From TrEMBL:
InterPro entries: Tscrpt_reg_PadR_N (IPR005149), WH-like_DNA-bd_sf (IPR036388), WH_DNA-bd_sf (IPR036390). It comes from Cupriavidus campinensis. This is PadR family transcriptional regulator. Residues 14-80 form the Transcription regulator PadR N-terminal domain. The lineage of its organism: Bacteria, Pseudomonadati, Pseudomonadota, Betaproteobacteria, Burkholderiales.
Length: 108
């Protein structure tokens, strides 16, 4: 369960990073490591491939840099949706009884 959650969280981080700047595999692995993920290029590549297959990322060759990954429009939509779910979870976790945020989301 923990591994699945970390995998989902890594997906969101990669989408965010790819939105900020087109990045190489090495750059994305380094960014994930800065946030405490225990990854290397070999573990990041399958994640990038899956995100490409889902239509969230595209890769292009850049002179002097190599292959970089950038967010697609579909990836922007997925990132926005993920952010909303994360924000809702955050509100629930920080609500005194854990229910107020869910009720305000439904009623509000």
């Amino acid at each position: 369960m923990k591994r699945q959650f970390l995998g989902l969280l890594a997906r969101v981080y990669v989408l965010q990073f790819a939105m900020e700047v087109p990045a190489t595999v090495a750059m994305l692995a380094e960014m994930l490591m800065e946030y405490g993920f225990q990854v290397d290029i070999g573990t990041v590549r399958p994640l990038l491939r899956a995100l490409q297959m889902d239509g969230y990322l595209e890769s292009v060759l850049r002179d002097g840099i190599g292959r970089v990954y950038q967010l697609t429009e579909q990836g922007r939509e997925e990132l926005a949706s993920s952010r909303l779910r994360i924000d809702e979870l955050y509100r629930r976790l920080h609500s005194p009884n854990g229910e107020d945020a869910a009720a305000s989301t439904v009623n509000g």
